[in-house]
Request: fold
Amino acid sequence: MIQRECGVLKTTYEADMALYPLPIARWTMLFLGVIFFGIIPMGLHEYYLSIANLVWIAAVGALGLNILVGYTGQVSIGHGAFMSVGAYTAANLANRLDSPWPVNLIAGGLMAALIGAIVGIPSVRIKGLYLAIATLAGQLIIEWTINHVTFISGGVQASIEVARPRLGPWVLSSQRAMYYFLLVFVVLAIVGTMNLVRSRVGRAFIAIRDQDIAAEIIGINIFRYKLLAFAISSFYAGVTGVLYTYYLGIANYEQFQIGVSIDYLAMIIIGGLGSVLGSIFGAFFVTLLPIVIRYTMEAFGGIFFDPQTVLNLIPNLRLMLFGALIIFFLIVEPDGLNRLWRNIRNYFRIWPFAY
Amino acid sequence: MRQLLAIVTALMVLGSPLLATGPSLAQSKGEIVIGVQCDRTGATQIVGTVLCPGFHDYVALVNSKGGVEGRMIKALEVDHEYKVPPGMEAYERFKKDGAVSVAVYGTPHIYALAAKLTEDKIPGTSPGFGSAAAADGVRYPYIFPIAATYWSQGTAAVDFAKKQLGGSLKGKKIAYIFYDNPAGREPIEVIQDLAGREGFQLKEFAVPPPGVEMGAQVLDIAQRYRADFVIAHLFGGAPAVSIKELKRVGYPLKKVVSFVWGSAEANIEAAGGFQVAEGYYTMQFAGVGTDYPVLNEIREMYKKEGKPAPKEMASTVFYNRGVLIGALHVEAIRNALKAKPDGKITGADVKAGFEKISNFTLGGLVPPLKITNTDHEGGGLVQIWQVKGGKFEKVTDWYAAYPDVVAKHIKAAAAK
Reply:
């Protein structure tokens, strides 16, 4: 179409290492930046921004899980628990030491990374479903500990209130302020992940995923890199937990139960394992689809049923449709929404001269 | 072909939000909007599928009689599957549609919304769940438990045990069997306090989630600890299991009192029916049974429309609670409208309206609550009903026990 992919000659190392070597890709990113930083937050009602905020929180978490599951090939059902580690670390620091949010954010991430690396130790010896169960054990142990150790949970209610984050004179409490706050971290997470997976570390992860014995033979320290994958992934999870805590104004253990871990796994599987864009797609899909289904049902359900029945029908039908759509997308494209998007892009790249 | 299919599906995905997210028309018609969260498909669906219709039926009844001060009420329901992110989205939608009060559903949700409700000045109710400390109207100005909190339920249960055991608990053994989550553990400190004061021995028995396995705990209660009375605080499927297990080891069910979430028809039926649970005491924050004037009016309303009464009405415990929550919201709005003759009410007005609720009993279905700007619980009143002869039979009238102990704990929580 309009883009010219040939003739892009790189004369410097910097040009070779650019994230987006094609001009059209750079223009696209600029365009997206204008949309997400300018048009959406300026033009939309706070309600839509609140949905976007939920997507952003999910996106950071999904990116982190994708590093572990998608790029390194280590299954984890403990993502929700790592989020709770970050959340409670930040909440405790904020309340006990009165420390500012950037400190809490990094501390929460680092604590989650540490715990994540410990939970990841079994990955050195076991793989696949067995590792899934080992991380499940991690999820349950962390849940139990937070729930029962009042030093961490701050009381039997296991919920700690935190003040809204402050940026100089501004208190970030409205959905619009939160939108920018969260979006900055989404961008950081995306850029971080994209650079990670093309670095030496990222290539080691991919080698381990594809064939860990071969990776060991070519000189990759399996022990170190598997734990590093767990640590980085958990760092993302911890940051997600901290963002979530600041978004809600409270850390509560019921926000991080096993169901959350499953939701995040669903996101990256639907979005596409081992792709940055897929994680974002997955976060959008899993967060938005139930909402879209509900609006559709509300708009058209009244034609066929009386209002009370519609109310009962919406949530049930939503669950069924959600499940059916997941199966549909996975059958159409087992590699997730990311592959679907690439197929579309590749189709138009040579359009109308496809042969 | 494959690519075409891909394009069509992609267009569907991109196009559907545009179709669906048109502006809502609710607030434009002079209607007053109440946001109703519900869970009809998630972890607590046995409550939600019955409770929420009760809420809607009461609102429909009010509307059929001409609304509140001439204004119609719209109860906007969003189901959140008992998950926090959809609950947040639901709340933001209520806010967008101009809701003046929100019936929050679920403990994690009232925690997650605590800061938001106060910032947005929209009152939210958490009847029978959430933090007991929220009864403090000064610290949580926009949260209204409007029913007995777990602390009030704990003191009421101890008081009931005392009466059942002949007026004194000195030297008696009481077992507290609870679902091992924050909500289950919340009343422990209060009951421990009372153990010191009344001189009884207390032993706690935790049931780990999901609460379907408690043979060991029940055996311990019945045969090793030999409790004189059992206070049960379980959720979901766990109450039914506890009834079955207690029955199996031969512990008399007339020495068991359950907190409000283990006390519905659904729990009894899941345990094997009313014959099995004969004698079991349940605690209630709304009246039980079908014999209330407001329920007759709802049946009349359906009859006039030529429809049978909804089947949810048969499950009276949860249905009546739904009616209670709906009625208190409507009553708060009525108070707000009376205070503002121009009819432009905001969440802050409805908050003041909640704080004027006093002796609004709806013919006995609602306890004679007295909600003030410091006490958002309204007195912590409960009734005890017993499973007897195939139905629930009233044992006590509305009562609250040891208000000084509850007040002490609320004060301590506020000092934290």
